[in-house]
Amino acid sequence: KKYVLKENNDIYDEFYCSLYDDLVYDPNKNKFEMDEIKYNIKPNKSSKILDIGSGGGHHVNLFNKEGYKVEGLDKSKFMVDYAKKRYNKCNFKHGDATDAMVYPSNSFTTITCLYFTIYYIKNKKQFLQNCYDWLKPGGYLVIHLVNRDKFDPILNSADPLQLVSAQRHAKSRITNSLVKFKDFQYKANFNLDKTNNLAEFDETFKDDTTGHIRQNKHKLHMETQKHILSIAKNIGFILHGKIDMVATQYQYQYLYVLYKPE
């Protein structure tokens, strides 16, 4: 087809999963997150960890290599299959984190939800309630949240100044990415609609030979950090810590560590 549009759950098909790492994989960021989680939570060999939105499986693999019991959950079957193939010693499950029946109560000591995963979830109250129920008393939830007005939406693969944030040197916020692959061109653009707490991340793939175009429209539910944290607090979570990701070149992005009281 000359033009294909993919939205929401349909985006993560075989084609996109095969390219996903080329667009966003960042081993330095992953190691930073892993080290910070270990430092702030101090898991041990009896810990049981769940990574929600496990994608390509890299965080699950890092935890597994350290000897922790860990499982990845992703709602894209293609992503789960891709992760299983790549890391066949790790456990991955296909499922939706807003479905309370995916796991029994008190299953995990730590749950992680990293790299924008929470913004794909519309019903954050249900999601956070599930996390609370799935955690054992004394357990931790680590979520990635951003300052939606200031974070840098340029993809790593499109940022030539990775060591110095390009945003600092721009007169206005840069919201588009451009990457040249071997046989197609990739463009992405981020638009924020603050009034409705929505954002759209549009990606376009144009084939060099045929000129055929595939477009992905990611719909993100981007409430303020304060609003999301207030939902967590009302459910019963206690804020244990906030980790600034600026050291790994992710400005205005944070890991929040939430605690389920014993």
Automatic annotation (TrEMBL):
The Methyltransferase type domain, residue ranges: 50-143
MF terms (GO), sorted A to Z: S-adenosylmethionine-dependent methyltransferase activity
Gene3D superfamilies the record matches: Vaccinia Virus protein VP39
Cross-referenced InterPro entries: Methyltransf_11, SAM-dependent_MTases_sf
TM annotation in the entry: none
Record PANTHER family: TRANS-ACONITATE 2-METHYLTRANSFERASE, TRANS-ACONITATE 2-METHYLTRANSFERASE-RELATED
Protein name: Methyltransferase type 11 domain-containing protein
